[in-house]
UniProtKB/TrEMBL annotation:
Protein name: 3-oxo-tetronate kinase
GO terms of molecular function: ATP binding; kinase activity
Biological function: Catalyzes the ATP-dependent phosphorylation of 3-oxo-tetronate to 3-oxo-tetronate 4-phosphate.
Entry keywords, A to Z: ATP-binding, Carbohydrate metabolism, Kinase, Nucleotide-binding, Transferase
Catalytic activity: 3-dehydro-L-erythronate + ATP = 3-dehydro-4-O-phospho-L-erythronate + ADP + H(+); 3-dehydro-D-erythronate + ATP = 3-dehydro-4-O-phospho-D-erythronate + ADP + H(+)
SUPFAM superfamilies: YgbK-like
Family: Belongs to the four-carbon acid sugar kinase family.
Ranges where the Four-carbon acid sugar kinase nucleotide binding domain occurs: 250-401
Domain Four-carbon acid sugar kinase N-terminal: 4-231
Length: 409
């Protein structure tokens, strides 16, 4: 019976949250779009995460898609909800985190919620309302140069206030350290005073567990996936068994994040690969796809990395992004049709393109590789399964593209 309905603003964020919920004792499922939410799914899962592609879409479209997801989750019985966004608060001054949160609160007739992107396991912490990436304030980290959502301020109160008309306030770390009961009184008091968006400090996993317990009265939680570790699922984790039959190790990477670029370079050192050339794709997309698939299938078992960027200098024209996504989706489709049963995919937009190309309906989480990264059994509309890792650009260790198959192949 469904206990929690979640809405994620991109696909890798959805899998990231489902990983944490599974570890917290929820039978978790990820579906792509609100149309895939079914009554049967609600009966099978304790938590259903709807993956959207709304992080960088126009505000009205992001709000509309999120409300449609909320309605679908309510129809299958969900009574508590979670809006999951990136732990680096990826957004623009217009949205979409603020407008979507506001719309969800209005639809649920709720007064307030917490804003808590902290994810200490991956180096994201919030102190005095400022978001840190490792030891760097957000606006001094590589996220300052993100091509789609450059983060030029680390102050979450200011960032959130720019995106919403409602009052935004800070709940500092000393209030969190007073314990969950005292913190709940603070949250309730601030809400009575008209503060609708409560930015809560958290620098450790224990802080997040305190926040989650204190926020137990709230119908809506918002944040990164870290906050979900403080939720109590109804059963012990039952890990989905994942077995990779084919020994071919193919990575599809469209992310321009600094960590993914490091992973690409490491993968190329250990194996082989090819960089996508937008001009060649424009001239002959089908021919390029066919050639890359042939090379991937002809190679040895070492990783074969198909990538867009391996260094900051590779990021040139953002207008090429849809073409690169289309190419990576087509490559994934042809590889799976020719017998490849496992793929590692890097980047939220790339993951969305691959899931669309493979016509995947839902994902069941399996072995965790690192915080926020796991294998998943992806069900295709055709009835076949494919094993995938859908990785947020910033997540995973430097050797992920070479070690992801260890223990499952």
């Amino acid at each position: 019976m469904i206990r929690l309905g979640a809405i994620a603003d991109d696909l890798t964020g959805a899998t990231d949250l489902a990983i944490t919920l599974t570890a917290a004792g929820f039978r978790s499922a990820v579906v792509v779009g609100h149309e895939a939410v079914t009554t049967e799914l609600g009966e099978q899962a304790d938590a259903v995460v709807v993956a959207l592609k709304s992080r960088t879409s126009p505000v009205d479209q992001a709000v509309s898609a999120s409300l449609a997801a909320l309605d679908a989750l309510q129809r299958i019985g969900a009574e508590r909800f979670y809006f999951k966004y990136c732990s680096t608060f990826d957004s623009t001054p217009e949205g979409n985190i603020g407008p979507v949160t506001e719309a969800l609160l209005d639809a649920l007739d709720e007064d307030a919620t917490v804003v808590c992107p902290s994810f200490p396991a991956n180096g994201r912490t919030v102190y005095q309302g400022h978001l840190f990436v490792g030891s760097q304030p957000l606006d001094e980290s590589p996220m300052r140069h993100h091509p789609l959502t450059p983060m030029t301020d680390s102050n979450l109160v200011r960032l959130m206030a720019a995106q919403t008309r409602a009052t935004v306030g800070l709940v500092p770390l000393q209030e969190v350290h007073r314990g969950s009961s005292a913190l709940r009184e603070v949250l309730m008091s601030r809400a009575r005073d008209g503060v609708r968006h409560l930015v809560v400090d958290a620098v450790t996993d224990d802080d997040l567990r305190t926040v989650a317990e204190a926020a137990g009265h709230l119908k809506l939680l918002t944040g990164g996936s870290g906050l979900a570790q403080g939720l109590d699922g109804p059963r012990a984790r039952a890990q989905e068994p994942i077995t990779v039959r084919d020994r071919r190790r193919v990575v599809l990477s469209g992310s321009a994040s600094s960590m993914t670029q490091t992973q690409v370079r490491h993968g190329l050192e250990e194996g082989d690969g090819v960089q996508l050339d937008p001009s060649a794709l424009r001239a002959d997309l089908a021919g390029c796809v066919g050639g890359i698939v042939a090379r991937a299938l002809a190679g040895p078992a070492t990783p074969f990395v198909v990538y867009a960027t391996a260094a900051p200098s590779d990021v040139r024209n953002l207008d090429d992004a849809p073409l690169i996504e289309e190419a990576l989706g087509a490559i994934a489709h042809d590889l799976v049709d020719r017998g490849v049963d496992s793929l590692v995919v890097a980047g939220g937009e790339t993951s969305g393109a691959v899931v669309s190309a493979l016509d995947i309906t839902d994902l069941r989480l399996g072995p965790t590789l690192s915080p926020g990264v796991a294998w998943a059994r992806a069900a295709r509309r055709s009835g076949d399964d494919v094993m995938v890792v859908l990785k947020s650009g910033n997540f995973g260790g430097a050797d992920l593209f070479t070690t992801a198959w260890d223990g499952v192949a």
